[in-house]
Fold each of these.
Amino acid sequence: MSTIPAKQTIGIFAGSLRQDSYSKKVALYLADLLEKQFNVKVFDLTPLSFYNQDLDNENDLPAAWEDLRAEVRAMDSFLFVTPEYNRSVPPVLKNALDIASLPRSESGWDGKPGAIVSISPGRLGGFGANHHLRQVTSILNICMMNQPEMYLSDIAALVDDSGFHDESAQRRLRKFADAFAEWVKQFGEK
């Protein structure tokens, strides 16, 4: 009797705390595209306090940190949707990466596939944030998909209250999601 393999899990991180953020809209759009093939969890980074090594012990460890670490360990892959703050990654996203990377011997990021979508209201599409995030995730040993790259510029013109209305951006994101699905599946076959 053959068994049906369990769906792999994708954790999606939107690098913005703003309730109606563009990053969250992109993250939710991608989640909808991917959930036919995968279990998808969009993480809420709001409860995370800033990392402080003084609290990283069994007596003082914030519950939100403990939860994040356990949830990241349970994921098979990661998708990061990041806005650009001053040519870099938002602090909330970097903070989540740092918290879930510890203790190093139990890092939930290690050896798992990932991909990055960067967004910006400007013309560069979050190029600086995208590449800073690649630099940070390389030390965490997240195996980032290199192609296709995804930079969404002029994001305010692509989405509204109901979500994406720009067909060209929708096509690009579908192509990206398909490539990411194939990337993730390669790691599941090992």
Amino acid sequence: MSLIYFLLWVIFNGRITFEIIIAGIIISLLLDLFVQKVIGLNLNVRGLIRFLKIFPDAVFYGIVLLIEIIKANLLISKLVLAPEIKVEPCLVKFNTPLKTDIARVALANSITLTPGTITISLEGNELLVHALDREIAKGLQNSIFERLLSRMEARLHA
């Protein structure tokens, strides 16, 4: 993985000098050490193959997340700018079928990133979410996020 970091370093610098090469080697090694020790991600050949399996899904997930954020922004703007504010805040508790901790955390974070919703707690596979309006809360369980993350989990374990 250090080699990939180093190649990215060289590409983003746009020129090759002795100082850039030395700094790139040091930064690449430190970044790889950080990723392995602190984040716990060890992308050896097997890990890289697993990552490449879900990379297209992860990119698609990012695009869907961005679209959902934009849609939620428009909905919240409509609620806020309405002449008479009629919101019904609510708490929604639901279980997710996601099996891995990382998928559940990604779901919780995606919900929180979407305006109008905040994940209050995630315990096991149970999420507690505050929604600004009941209409927003309807789409939380069995959301597109859950389906895409479930598909990524299935590909990783296939």
Amino acid sequence: MSITEIKRRAGKIKLMITDVDGVLTDNGVYYSGNGEELKRFSFRDGMGVERLRKIAAIETGIITREDSLPVSKRAEKLKITELHMGVMDKAQRLQEIMERIKISKDEIAYIGDDINDEEIMKQVGLCACPGDAMSFARRVAHYVCTTNGGHGAFREFAELIINSKINNN
């Protein structure tokens, strides 16, 4: 897909949905001596969520298979209200969100990194994957970030969308 077409699609986005592990995190999980699960999140990605909301009036959502306290705490801090954890069928959850908030697939962007993101990526208006994503996600992504998951890939995609919205309006 050409960069011109990517920017055209990006100009329509109203909601950006992300996976967590491998996108917002470096795809690793850490355990403390007490068995507590720890995840590393990028502050750059957090600023991307804030910039999407403030500059482009785009909300952010999370759909993940994981059901973890660190993810819910991060979503709370970033004021992400569309938080869907423990989801095995992401494409079905996307349909439910679209019906509930009355939004079309062309108005949704998604960033994912693995085979469980493939179907949802095929259903949205614009999709991306981190630079270190698995081949399944790379194959269907409209845009492959130069940045790796957990190191600003979400922010890179967010900035592309923000810049497209600003230049289209």
